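Thread: Newbie trying to understand structure tokens

Hi all, I'm a second-year student working on a class project, and my supervisor (Dr. K.) asked me to get a predicted structure for one chain before our next meeting. I've only ever worked with sequences, so writing a 3D structure as a token string is new to me. If someone could post the tokens and maybe explain what I'm looking at, I'd be very grateful. Here's the chain:
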Amino acid sequence: MAGSGRTAEISVQEISHDRRSELEAFDETKAGVKGLVDAGVSKVPQIFIHPSESSGDRTLSTGKNPVIIPVIDLEAIDKDPVKRRGIVDKVRDASGTWGFFQVINHGIPAGVLEEMGAAPVANWRDTFFSYMAPYPPKPEELPEACRDTMMEFSKQVTSLGISLFGLLSEALGLKTDHLEKMDCAEGLALISHYYPACPEPELTLGTSKHSDNDFLTVLLQDQIGGLQMLHQDQWIDIPPVPGALVINIGDLMQASFSFIIDQLVSDLRILISNDRFKSVEHRVLANRIGPRISVACFFSTSFQPSSKLYGPIKELLSEDNPPVYRETTVNEYLSYFYDHGLDGTSPLTHFKL
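---
Reply by user tm_fold:
Sure, no problem. This is what the structure looks like when written as tokens:
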């Protein structure tokens, strides 16, 4: 028995070494996943295979009664007080029940969305990342093919983000500018993902299961699909809606505001909302069809050094609704997030009181 255990131990070490060597070799090519596809790869390399992801839960949620996340029309939010109250109610319900929703009539021109989706740019994807606020890059630091579009898109998303933080503030019974004054909209990072067609999509993922370590995410996805969220222990699709943007609550928002949703089905919580809003896990499936292109914009204050403490909003607390999380800086939270890794458990549990 001792010999069998030793053999198993050596095998694990050898596998770990081989994987590291393969990753280094892949990185040295500088060709990305697109390079593999262009070279005609017919099998997914071992470094991309996700053995922990069973094939049984990877199917898109189709059927007679598919679950559909809310689509919220933002038209006239600044012109019609009655419509705005109705929109606030929908945002409150979607943020507390789902943690995800899509928005239409959001004010970003269709041409900007189309241009952003057409910009060229160990999951089955290639990625371009850039900080866009509060200190935007110099234009010459961005790829010439997409720099103007990225700058304009970031400007438009920032404006939309301020509007969304206003709706979320009102949904919590706070003044419209409460979250903006907390600097929730101060920092913006933009990540463009390019997912080539995959020869064996059942063996890998486009993006592994995770929740977002920010306040709020605005996502532009094309019409191929593949984005899923975990709802009531089941993976459900977030199908593309032409002209719509996907909005989801991040961990830092959950922890700051949440406490009213304790009776709901999910155990996930959001820091500044003291669990009133939900940050839910999501992923992207690999697909035989491609390429799939998406652009995610993350609102956070983690992009510059700050000692500012974030915790449950005091106006939301009472004797009956005590704080669920302790105060923390964004940098402390992110340090734990990166050390913790994506192991299927929420980093928020580390900050619970």
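A couple of things are worth pointing out once you decode it. The chain has one domain: 57-351. Helices lie at 2-29, 32-38, 81-97, 110-118, 147-171, 178-181, 251-257, 330-340. Feel free to ask follow-ups in this thread.
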